[in-house]
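User: Here's a chain of 89 residues. Predict its fold as tokens.
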Amino acid sequence: MFQVGDWVVDPHGSIGYIEQIHGFQVRVKLVRNKFGKKTNQINHYYINELSPTPVEASEKTQILSIVDIALDTNDRDWFFELTERMGTE
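Assistant: Prediction complete.
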């Protein structure tokens, strides 16, 4: 099941992370819309409407996209993990 901080994809294809969980409802801060453009939106969903975000990327282009999300959310540890990983692929 999901936890606070997990990255998810909403039913429309937008990417964000879970800020709060209240029973079967979750509050998600969206950082990218379905077109890949930056957004700063808060939405509420039922937990079964969300899918986990595939963060395991093997190609550099996919990793670069994820690095953008890490930068947008000021997640320093994740940024360093991803950039280190790019050097090994």
